User: What shape does this take?
Amino acid sequence: MSVLIEQKKRSLIEFAKLKQSGEKIAALTAYDASFAQIFDKAGIDWLLVGDSLGNVIQGQKTTIPVTIDHMVYHTQCVSRVVSHAYVAADMPFLSYTNIDVAMHNAARLMQEGGASMVKLECDISHLALVEKMVSEGVPVCVHMGLRPQQVEKMGGYRVQGRDDESSKAMQEAAIAFENIGVDFLLLESVPRKLAATITAKSSIPVIGIGAGPECDGQILVMHDALGFTQGHVPRFARNFYAGKGVDSVNKAAEAYVSAVKSVDFPSEEHCFN
Ligand code: KIV
Assistant: This one.
C-alpha cells in the first residue's frame, strides 16, 4: 500500500519562513512534465525552467538562441503538473531590452506558461527596469555573477566577483535589488566568501550555483545532478544518480534534496575560493 503525503504548495511567504529558520531551499531545473513531476514528488522547493534548455534540450552551444516561445512552451510543460514546487521561468536573451518588451514577455511566461516568478540575468543597469516589473506585481529573481547570456561579451564562462571592485559592485547591486522589492537573488559561479556575505546581508532568499554552502538554497541543472550531461560538467556539480543505493531518478532527486537540506552539498570541492 502506498501512502500519498500531500505537500503544501511553496509560496513566497513559505520561502521567507525557510530563510528565517535556516532551512535550505532545494532547487533544480526542469523542462518537461515527467521530470518535473518526479522532482516535485521528491520535495524540490523551487523548479526553474532555465534557458539552459538551449544547451541540454536543444543541443545549442549557448543559451543565446533560446526564444520566448521556447520558454513559454517548456514552462507550460512543467507548470501543468507541479503541485508542491514554486515554478520560475527564465527570461531569455534580449527578451527584456526595455520595460514594454519585458512586461510583455513576463506576462507570457506567467499567463501562458503558468510560471509564478521570472528570472532575469542582471547587473545594476537593470535596476529601473526590474523596479517597474516589481511594482506591477511580477515576482522577480535577479541572477547575478556568471550570466551565461553574456558569454560573448564575457569571453567565456568565468567565475565573477573575484576582484575587490567587482565584488563590491555585486554586493551593492544585491542590496539595491532587495530594496526595490526583488523576491529572490541567484548567484552563479562566485567566490564562496562573497556569496556568504551577500546571503548574510540579504533578507530575501539567495540561491547559489557554484556559490558555496552558505547560500539559502542550491540549484543545479538537472542533467548535471543526474549525471546525464555529455561533455563538460561544471566543477560545482555532483552526480546524485551515482550515490550508494540510488537506482532511479526518483531516488537521485530525493538524495539531492536531502544533501541540500543537510548541507552535505555543496562541499569544499564544489566551491570557488
Ligand atoms: O538556465 C539555467 O538553468 C540557470 C541555472 C544555471 C541557474 O540559469
